[in-house]
Amino acid sequence: MVAATKGKSDISFAGTFASSAFAACFAEICTIPLDTAKVRLQLQKKAVGDVAGLPKYRGLLGTVGTIAREEGLAALWKGIVPGIHRQCLFGGLRIGLYEPVKDYYVGKDFVGDVPLSKKILAGLTTGALAITVANPTDLVKVRLQAEGKLPAGVPRRYSGALNAYSTIMRQEGIAALWTGLGPNIARNAIINAAELASYDQVKQTILKIPGFTDNVLTHLLAGLGAGFFAVCIGSPVDVVKSRMMGDSAYKSTLDCFIKTLKNDGPFAFYKGFIPNFGRLGSWNVIMFLTLEQAKKFVRSIEHPQNK
């Protein structure tokens, strides 16, 4: 499971929150270049015409290479500051609340394996709650990542994360920080449920196979499964979320969905699928491996008698 299994010493919510936030931030730092490539691919409109209309960004490695060549390696880590802000809030809350919410749904006297439906429901709930709090950090992260190389003499829209927060509030109002909240709740509730429930379920299934124990290999396999399910299920809402946050031309979630379908076709909703899986697959592996070790460390501090 994501948290301590029955029979092990439980750790406090504060300990789970801190472990989750640390693991999520570490995974963010390691994988944000792939996320930047994913955002650029998702925001790229359909090419029109012949050679002159060829898309600027093509494929995961091509996009990473183009950004690094035109803007420098540092550009691949654009949005890392709000990304860390986001993971401290979103990562800590969605994972930290998962076990308590799951226990609430099954009841305190429940014994046995938790049904998959309850795991999914808990993931949907904590994902929605967490992103409602963290939406401003997501908005700023996407806007910083979306800005490419500018012509000489043209100033950047924002000088940094803090400047972006203040500029958006000043120019667009505080409510603008929650732009795209609808698709963001849909996206993160769905992806959170896919990640946490699938990790929980895959890990539980693997541990029933003779020879497998609660070790790094099990965490690695469960993390890959979580990333794959998250991308397959969440990619369409992820594209809509990125387009709404990166381009103010869309009036609503439905408007963005319809325009994307009409102008770019149904496959546009899976734009950046490979970098998205590369990002979420590697992100989940790194995050869950780190989380399991961080929680083991916290458990040893909170319950030294059980070392």
UniProtKB/TrEMBL annotation:
GO molecular function: amino acid transmembrane transporter activity
Keyword field contains NADP: no
Subcellular location: Mitochondrion inner membrane
Cellular component terms per the entry's GO annotation: mitochondrial inner membrane
Solcar-type repeats, residues: 11-104, 114-205, 214-297
Chief place of localization: mitochondrion
Membrane topology term: Multi-pass membrane protein
InterPro entries named in the record: MCP, MCP_dom_sf, MCP_transmembrane, Mito_Metabolite_Transporter
UniProt keyword terms in alphabetical order: Membrane, Mitochondrion, Mitochondrion inner membrane, Repeat, Stress response, Transmembrane, Transmembrane helix, Transport
Source taxon at top rank: Eukaryota
Family, as annotated: Belongs to the mitochondrial carrier (TC 2.A.29) family.
Name by which UniProt lists this protein: Uncoupling protein
Protein's organism: Rubroshorea leprosula
